[in-house]
Amino acid sequence: MEYLNTILNEIGENFLSCPICIQHLKEPKVLPCLHRYCSDCLESYIKQRQGELECSVCREFFTIPSEGFKTDYFMKNLIEYVTLEKPEINIDLHNCVRCDKHRTAVAYCFDRKGYLCENCYDISSSQGEEHLRQFLKLCWFERNYSRGADEE
């Protein structure tokens, strides 16, 4: 489990932080150059500009859209997952957020912000491709964690 925590910490430090506040992105907004900023940091940064914004990472200029920059929901979900209580990212028993029974977790549901048992995951995932994006199968961690633990 230590191997998994190390990887998640490295991902968090190297890829999920705001270039302005250097913290995990909060309500991440994405620029056309694909660099991301916290919503509040970007809003403060925009207030100092007159209709045009320079990305502080790549120095590319952009016109500030009247509707603002888009929220990066993929990144938001990834950050939420990485900041979960890391030692619990395994296939141990958890209360299922759908049926509320204490069972073996097979997936994490970003929509409900909790773990799902196999039966509830099967039911939920049968609702279509768009709905399936709300889940992360925990077998990925078991497979990759075991591989990493064997290498140590």
From TrEMBL:
Database matches in InterPro entries: TRIM45/56/19-like, Znf_C3HC4_RING-type, Znf_RING, Znf_RING/FYVE/PHD, Znf_RING_CS
Gene3D superfamilies referenced in this protein's UniProt entry, alphabetically: Zinc/RING finger domain, C3HC4 (zinc finger) (3.30.40.10)
Keyword annotations of the record: Metal-binding, Zinc, Zinc-finger
GO molecular function, one term: ubiquitin protein ligase activity
First and last residue of the signal peptide: none
Pfam families for the chain: zf-C3HC4
GO biological process, one term: protein monoubiquitination
Residue span, RING-type domain: 18-59
UniProt xrefs under PANTHER family: BONUS, ISOFORM C-RELATED, TRANSCRIPTION INTERMEDIARY FACTOR 1-BETA
Protein name listed in UniProt: RING-type domain-containing protein
Organism encoding this protein: Stichopus japonicus (Sea cucumber)
